[in-house]
Amino acid sequence: MNGPAAQFRQAFGRSPQGVWAAPGRINLIGEHTDYNGGFALPIALPHSLTVAAARRDDGKVRLHSRQFPGPHEFFLDGLAPGSVPEGAAYQAGALWVLLEEGHRVGGLDLLVDSTIPAGSGLSTSAALCCATVLAATGLYGHEPAPEEVARLAQRAENDFVGVPCGIMDQSAVMLAEQGRALFLDCRSLTTVSEPFDLAEQGMSLLVVDTRAPRRLVEGAYADRRSSCERAARVLEVSALREVTGPELDRALQRLPEGPVRARVRHVVTENERVLRAVELLRAGRLREVGPLLTASHVSLREDYEVSVAEVDTAVEAALSAGALGARITGGGFGGCVIALVDSEQVQVCTEAVRAAFAERGFGAPEVFTALPSAGARRLS
């Protein structure tokens, strides 16, 4: 297969001036905690997205992609939310936020290629925004710190595309390290690289792409976030991060019965699970993280209500085949499941998941193992 430079030449008739790569991510635990100022524990995937780019002197941006709709063209002058087709929104949003914040960037030719499964909840959008920010700033003379790239990419999704995501995905894309998990405090934005050597402990992380379609821009994700914000106002805290486990029962009594209580219960208990998982990783007790994954899934299914039938089927099948723990990962409403398994059980668990999908009449899932990988970087 042709590499990014050759693809760029085929699309634009000239050579690129640089190539950047940004990985997908898997969140081990800590779901829907980021926009509540809480904790998360993601890793970067070996699957990545590349952006090959070259400057233009006419203020025009031309986009080609091997996986996404296009090609697209637009001018930077007058760029605003809603001014470009959906297929160009993430790249346009990344450039728009740079201009909004005073970065001197100009026209670009951009060629995107990706091995991240599309629509899987593995943060293709965060990778695309981060890689576009890196390409534009790299070619126009100023490369921000990784933490700043993550913030800019988040703002592109929030303010241009309209996805009210937190900063966990972008932080994982920019700051992850090979062989490590990233412990992220989403309030202070401090990070700690934690040990996550699966092979050393004879374990594997199985990823099941259920291929159930996901729609985060539509109302469900935004509804969950607004519920948490309403609850924080009632509880007189700046974010649900401030409610700790010992305070949970008293906090729930101050909230009206119904979904809002359940959302708060998930966020508070999920933060507790992340902190416990970090303790176990530091102690070299990776196997004991498994039950925390399963508890997280139950909470996401029952309290946060973001699971779907395909996801529950994958979790149940993996657990029945001997997985140490399993859960939905990502924003939910479809996407991927992760399972922590003994390495010799990978094939058994894989076959069990595929058989369960066939029995339920679901389309065949994609199943693979993931190793923690490096964050975004310039390739050439």
Quick structural summary:
This protein has eleven helices and twelve strands. The chain is of the alpha+beta class.
Helix and strand topology:
Layout (H helix, E strand, L loop, with lengths): L3 H9 L5 E12 L9 E18 L3 E6 L6 E4 L13 H12 L6 E8 L9 H16 L6 H16 L6 H8 L4 E6 L5 E5 L7 E7 L9 H17 L12 H6 L5 H24 L7 H13 L6 H12 L4 E5 L6 E7 L3 H15 L5 E5 L6 E2 L2
Parallel strand pairs: 3-5
Antiparallel strand pairs: 1-2, 1-12, 2-5, 2-6, 3-4, 6-7, 8-10, 8-11, 9-10
Helix pairs in contact: 2-3, 2-4, 3-4, 3-5, 4-5, 6-8, 8-9, 10-11
Describe the overall structure.
With 380 residues, this protein is an alpha+beta fold. Helices cover 39% and strands 22% of the residues. The chain contains eleven helices and twelve strands. It has helices at 4-12, 89-100, 124-139, 146-161, 168-175, 219-235, 248-253, 259-282, 290-302, 309-320, 346-360, and strands at 18-29, 39-56, 60-65, 72-75, 107-114, 180-185, 191-195, 203-209, 325-329, 336-342, 366-370, 377-378. The strands form two sheets. Strands 1, 2, 3, 4, 5, 6, 7 and 12 form an eight-stranded mixed sheet that branches. The chain has a four-stranded antiparallel sheet with strand order 9-10-8-11. A hairpin with a 6-residue loop joins strand 9 (325-329) and strand 10. Helix 3 packs across helix 4 (146-161) and helix 6 (219-235) crosses helix 8 (259-282). The model has no long low-confidence stretch (mean pLDDT 95).
